[in-house]
Automatic annotation (TrEMBL):
<dbReference type="InterPro" id="IPR037229">
    <property type="entry name" value="Ribosomal_bL35_sf"/>
</dbReference>
<dbReference type="GO" id="GO:0003735">
    <property type="term" value="F:structural constituent of ribosome"/>
</dbReference>
<dbReference type="InterPro" id="IPR021137">
    <property type="entry name" value="Ribosomal_bL35-like"/>
</dbReference>
<dbReference type="InterPro" id="IPR018265">
    <property type="entry name" value="Ribosomal_bL35_CS"/>
</dbReference>
<dbReference type="Pfam" id="PF01632">
    <property type="entry name" value="Ribosomal_L35p"/>
</dbReference>
<dbReference type="GO" id="GO:0022625">
    <property type="term" value="C:cytosolic large ribosomal subunit"/>
</dbReference>
<keyword id="KW-0687">Ribonucleoprotein</keyword>
<dbReference type="InterPro" id="IPR001706">
    <property type="entry name" value="Ribosomal_bL35"/>
</dbReference>
<feature type="compositionally biased region" description="Basic and acidic residues">
    <location>
        <begin position="22"/>
        <end position="36"/>
    </location>
</feature>
<protein>
    <recommendedName>
        <fullName>Large ribosomal subunit protein bL35</fullName>
    </recommendedName>
</protein>
<feature type="region of interest" description="Disordered">
    <location>
        <begin position="1"/>
        <end position="44"/>
    </location>
</feature>
<feature type="compositionally biased region" description="Basic residues">
    <location>
        <begin position="1"/>
        <end position="18"/>
    </location>
</feature>
<comment type="similarity">
    <text>Belongs to the bacterial ribosomal protein bL35 family.</text>
</comment>
<dbReference type="GO" id="GO:0006412">
    <property type="term" value="P:translation"/>
</dbReference>
<keyword id="KW-0689">Ribosomal protein</keyword>
Amino acid sequence: MPKNKTHSGAKKRFRTTGKGKLMREQTNARHYLEHKSSRRTRRLAVDQDVAPADVKRIKKMLGK
């Protein structure tokens, strides 16, 4: 039986913590940052937990 391949898009977007929790980056932090307040860009820099409804599917994509 062949090995399962990791989903290329998922491995770029999600990371797993030491305890196995999935993290993602927030949107709106890529460009036009000069128009956004410093407070907003600092808030956007923090990684977020993945929603519980999506965890099972994403873990499968990552081969976990």
